[in-house]
Design goal:
With about 80 residues, this protein is mainly α. It has 4 helices and no strands. The protein has one domain: Alpha Horseshoe (Serine Threonine Protein Phosphatase 5, Tetratricopeptide repeat).
């Protein structure tokens, strides 16, 4: 699945309060794109909404780290 599609589908599922389904879509896409910061961030936010901060923190930290790396490589 493409990243853009996964993000759009997960947005719809979150709007419908289908957090488990939304996280499954994102997790499947992360299997193909494991370091994609937007996927990691979105899944982290869903984990927070699910009341799972211990699972959210590493995802959000990874998203931030990869976002910084991408920004640094673009500035070179």
């Amino acid at each position: 699945m493409k990243v853009r599609s996964a993000l759009e589908i997960s947005d719809r599922l979150v709007a419908w309060k289908m957090l488990d389904d939304a996280s499954e879509v994102l997790q499947q896409c992360l299997d193909t794109h494991p370091l994609h910061p937007k996927l990691l961030q979105r899944l982290g936010r869903i984990r927070l909404a699910q009341g799972r901060p211990e699972d959210a923190a590493p995802l959000l930290e990874q998203a931030l780290a990869h976002h910084r790396l991408m920004a640094e490589s673009n500035s070179l």
